[in-house]
Amino acid sequence: MTTKEFAMSRSTLALTALATLAVAAPALADDHVDFGRPRPLRTAAADPVPGETQLAPMPEPGPGRETTIFGLPKNVGTVDRVVRTVIGLGLAGTGVYGLATGDLSDTTSGVLLGVSAVPFATAATGYCPLYQVLGFDTQF
């Protein structure tokens, strides 16, 4: 296959993919296809759609219970926050070391630095969304 044929086949593939998405996307966006009734207009993502299950509301913090600066109930204790900070420092340090020495690829170092934001953020705020879902609470 020549370079010109390869470029033409690649552009043909891209146009075919775009055309397929243009045709299929509206049908995929609907939960069901019902041409007899118009879908209700939603003005915001929080507006309920009839027939959809709604998420459980965020639990209210109990009396004397601390909240984060975002109003979420704290569910990460002091020891857990220290461990998360150490894990974040380890991930960030490994990422910086990989960038400085070249022992790790730039992609791996970047991923390590990005992932280190998660333990840092949960340690800084005292709230872990995964703990919320699983029902854990290390705040004593």
Task: Provide the residue-averaged pLDDT.
Answer: 77
Distinct helical segment count: 5
Order of helices and strands: HHHHH
Query: Biggest sheet: strands, sense, closure?
Result: none
Structural class, by secondary structure, is mainly alpha
**Quaternary form:** single chain
Q: Based on DSSP secondary structure assignment, what is the total number of beta strands?
A: 0
Hey, roughly how much beta strand do the residues contain?
under 5%
Rg over CA atoms, rounded to whole Å, is 24 Å
Low-pLDDT parts are none
End-to-end C-alpha gap: 68 Å
Report the principal-axis shape: flat
Tell me the domain tally.
1
Helix content estimate: 40-55%
Architecture overview:
With 140 residues, the protein is mainly alpha-helical. Helix 2 packs antiparallel against helix 4. It is flat and about 70 Å long. It is 54% helix and 0% strand. The chain has one domain. The protein is built from 5 helices and no strands.
Please give a quick description of this structure.
Helix 2 (78-101) packs antiparallel against helix 3 (106-115).
Topology of this structure?
Blueprint: H1 3-29, H2 78-101, H3 106-115, H4 117-125, H5 129-134
Keywords:
single chain; 140 residues; mainly alpha
